[in-house]
């Protein structure tokens, strides 16, 4: 995406966020402006320090953790909104806290800080002159802040109010939307993977403790249904439910807010008019939660359809010599194992088929299977600084490739010299059978 388009998109999102802030803290515009400006400056400085002081995946891990904390905190806010739903007050916190200048300034500061850090990430990682554009964006964001708070916001309809919990939902949905544009910051794919792994582990443990895999009375179609629990769709739908729980709770809390009593009004037409007005006002309260839900839905789509193109070469067929050893030279025609790209190979022996790849990282060669011991073996692709598991979309930093555990590619025993790498065909097949096939032991599971 061109830098100019990125900048304009971020400015639009910032304008929406400022509108939400002013609707939540309409009585404290000075405190809101001061907190937002300070947050933009702090977030910009923090973002540049992060990328200037650390290399590799650490800056991305810090930013991702920051967004994850905001997302987890949203569940607490949603639960609070649900619990307080019968109360008639329509505020972010309570009436007294919402009008307090310190609370207003702090909420605006934290929101603007996280937004600025994400903006710096999106703009400073985009090529030449990106730093200048990032600084220019922050300056434009300050101008936009003043225009929205003091010029545009007073022109909006008065019925467009912020429900309790609506501002945190709007802010976090914006953070998730921006983060979803980068596989390194995306939260939905890791969430789906965790849900999928939790279900897989639970079913495995349950089956083993109950000795179900050896039960003679289960029909094939029963195993087919059980096998559905081991598809990646289970993780996706489970993650989707968790993803939208806060938005659903806040929206339902709006509907749970009681209508004011009109028993003292004698004329029926007047009573109906008052009730209709309150119903219309309550429906308008859903605008910000609805907008946030759309942003979160788009984030899910971005997570499943990243714009990043992954390096994924076609596997080269290799054979073993008479001693059962597979030799892969460092240089073979246009292939150079030390070029930093993953090089895929496939070994066939009768009906047995094993995929693996060789990668040069941290000044040494490593050989791993094109699969892990958790997911179905759909393989890996490589982007800048990471490889990605195509099954669960988990990103693996290049420096951890070759280490066992989690969704990392399964390491393979090998030896390396100046001429290339050498590995045992028998050991390669045994490692595949022991590590990868364990993900498909349950009858009826996907092949």
How would you explain this protein's 3D organization?
It comes from Geotalea daltonii (strain DSM 22248 / JCM 15807 / FRC-32) (Geobacter daltonii). This is Membrane protein, DUF2318-containing. Pfam families: FtrD-like. The chain has 447 residues and is of the alpha+beta class. The chain folds into two domains: 3-190 and 234-304, no CATH class; 316-440, Rieske Iron-sulfur Protein, CATH 2.102.10. Helix content is 54%, strand content 12%. It contains 13 helices and twelve strands. Strands 1-5-6-7 form a four-stranded mixed sheet. Strand 9 and strand 10 form a beta hairpin. Helix 5 (101-124) runs parallel beside helix 7 and helix 8 packs across helix 10 (232-256). The protein is elongated. The two termini are 37 Å apart. Residues 89-96 and 439-447 have low confidence and may be disordered.
Distance from first to last alpha carbon: 37 Å
Q: Biggest sheet: strands, sense, closure?
A: 4 strands, mixed
Strand content: 5-15%
What's the alpha carbon Rg, rounded to whole Å?
27 Å
What's the overall geometry?
A: elongated
Number of separate domains = 2
Which blocks of ≥5 consecutive residues have pLDDT under 50? 89-96, 439-447
Largest beta sheet: what is the strand line-up?
1-5-6-7
Helical residue percent band? 40-55%
- Mean pLDDT across every amino acid position: 83
Order of helices and strands: HHHHHHHHHHHHEEEEEEEEEEEEH
Look at the helices and sheets and give the structural class. alpha+beta
Number of strands: 12
Enumerate how many helices there are, as a single number.
13
InterPro entries: FtrD-like (IPR018758)
Pfam families: FtrD-like (PF10080)
Protein name: Membrane protein, DUF2318-containing
Keywords: Membrane, Transmembrane, Transmembrane helix
């Amino acid at each position: 995406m061109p830098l100019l388009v990125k900048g304009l998109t971020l400015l639009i999102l910032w304008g929406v966020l400022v509108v939400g802030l002013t609707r939540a803290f309409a009585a404290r515009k000075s405190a809101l402006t001061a907190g937002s400006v300070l947050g933009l400056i702090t977030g910009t400085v923090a973002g540049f320090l992060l990328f200037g002081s650390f290399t590799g995946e650490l800056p991305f891990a810090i930013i991702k953790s920051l967004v994850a904390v905001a997302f987890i905190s949203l569940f607490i806010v949603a639960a609070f909104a649900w619990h307080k739903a019968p109360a008639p007050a329509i505020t972010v916190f309570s009436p007294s806290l919402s009008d307090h200048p310190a609370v207003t300034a702090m909420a605006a500061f934290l929101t603007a800080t996280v937004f600025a850090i994400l903006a710096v990430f999106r703009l400073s990682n985009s090529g030449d002159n990106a730093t200048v554009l990032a600084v220019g964006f922050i300056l434009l964001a300050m101008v936009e802040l003043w225009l929205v708070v003091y010029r545009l916001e007073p022109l909006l309809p008065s019925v467009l109010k912020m429900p309790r919990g609506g501002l945190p939902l709007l802010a976090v949905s914006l953070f998730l939307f921006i983060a979803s544009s980068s596989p390194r910051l995306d939260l939905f794919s890791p969430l789906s993977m965790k849900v999928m792994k939790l279900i897989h582990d639970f079913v495995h443990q349950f089956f083993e403790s109950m000795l179900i895999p050896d039960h003679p009375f289960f029909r094939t179609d029963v195993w087919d249904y059980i096998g559905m629990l081991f598809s990646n769709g289970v993780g996706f739908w489970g993650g989707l439910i968790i993803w939208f729980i806060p938005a659903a709770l806040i929206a339902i809390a709006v509907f749970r807010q009681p209508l004011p009593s009109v028993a003292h009004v004698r004329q029926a037409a007047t009573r109906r008019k008052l009730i209709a007005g309150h119903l219309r006002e309550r429906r308008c309260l859903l605008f910000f939660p609805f907008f946030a839900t759309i942003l979160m839905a788009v984030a899910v789509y971005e997570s499943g359809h990243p714009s990043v193109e992954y390096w994924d070469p076609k596997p080269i067929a290799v054979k073993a010599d008479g001693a059962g050893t597979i030799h892969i030279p460092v240089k073979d025609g246009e292939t150079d194992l030390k070029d930093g790209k993953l090089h895929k190979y496939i070994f066939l022996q009768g009906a047995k088929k094993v995929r693996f790849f060789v990668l040069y990282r941290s000044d040494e060669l490593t050989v791993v299977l094109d699969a892990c011991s958790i997911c179905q073996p759909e393989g890996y692709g490589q982007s800048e600084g990471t490889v990605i598991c195509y099954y669960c979309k988990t990103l693996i930093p290049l420096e951890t490739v070759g280490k066992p555990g989690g969704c990392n590619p399964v390491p393979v025993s090998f030896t390396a010299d100046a001429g290339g790498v050498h590995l045992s065909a028998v050991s390669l097949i045994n490692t595949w059978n022991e590590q990868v096939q364990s993900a498909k032991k349950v009858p009826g599971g996907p092949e």
